[in-house]
Design brief:
The chain is of the alpha+beta class and 263 residues long. The chain has two domains: 110 residues, no CATH class; 100 residues, no CATH class. It is 62% helix and 11% strand. It holds the Pfam family AntA. This is AntA/AntB antirepressor domain-containing protein.
């Protein structure tokens, strides 16, 4: 599987090997399925579930990273990729599996027995295939550039979080994380996750701090309607260390949920 040519740029990019087999990149499959698990854990688990054998159903290769480290890439045969998509047991997994089947079916329908063509037509087909592969490669490169631009935009959002305007910026990122997770219906879950991490990391209880804050305000004669508007961000706001910790946690969650990746 050394030589790969982009065959279809769809829900998940599909490649063709020099022997004509269809394969996918494991990381691109993971991104297309929008899994919330860490890539390494997900791909190993799914390949194990499929009883996939290395060098038969998939290959691995080591790639150098910009930071000097290395990461393992998985090149997975189409049949195994279809099974991995099905194992997601959700709508996205179904859509990706159907997409693979549709592309495979279309490819078989369009297959031409080259040996049945006369020499001139065989030559024309070779020229056409060469031009088509060049155009597909250019399209893939352009898509990669666009994805990188989107990723840089996401990284800017995370890095540019302003400590002086932390409430507004963290709220904006939490909203984006919820959208990445599937929609604003996930907002409360994502927000509570951030608070839980802060509680555990700093050994505090934001719930208790919020209750105490309301009690102190009541003793100072603050009206109930104003106290009812308080939330855990107000409890965080009273402690500089918690503010710094919360900013760090929201940044970590932004990376975890893929805000630094192209959507």
């Amino acid at each position: 599987m050394n030589s790969l040519t982009l065959f279809e740029q769809g829900l998940v990019p599909l490649y063709q090997t020099d022997t004509g087999e269809y394969v996918v990149n494991g990381r691109e499959l993971w991104e297309g399925l929008q899994s919330k698990r860490q890539f390494a854990d997900w791909v190993k688990s799914r390949l194990l579930d499929c009883e996939a054998a290395e060098n038969e159903d998939f290959d691995t290769l080591s790639q150098n990273c910009e930071n000097g480290g290395k990461r393992i890439e998985y090149i997975i045969k189409l049949d195994t990729a279809k099974e991995m998509a099905m194992l997601e047991r959700n709508e996205i997994g179904k859509q990706v599996r159907k997409y693979f089947i549709a592309v495979e079916k279309r490819s078989k329908q369009n297959a031409v027995d080259v040996s049945a063509l006369n020499p001139e037509m065989q030559m024309f087909k070779l020229i056409f295939d060469s031009v088509a592969q060049t155009q597909l490669a250019q399209k893939q490169q352009q898509q990669a550039i666009e994805n990188m631009d989107k990723r840089l935009d996401g990284i800017r959002d995370v890095v540019a979080l302003n400590p002086n305007d932390w409430r507004k910026d963290t709220t904006a990122l939490i909203n984006k994380i919820a959208l990445r997770a599937g929609g604003y219906e996930h907002l409360n879950v994502i927000r509570e996750e951030s608070y839980k991490i802060l509680d555990e990391r700093f050994g505090v209880s934001l719930s208790i701090r919020l209750t105490n804050l309301k009690k102190n305000m009541a003793l100072n004669g603050v009206c109930k309607s104003k106290m009812d508007k308080l939330n855990k961000l107000d409890a965080i706001a009273n402690d500089k260390k918690l503010i710094e910790g919360y900013i760090s946690i929201v940044k970590e969650m932004s990376i975890k949920y893929g805000l630094d990746k192209a959507i």
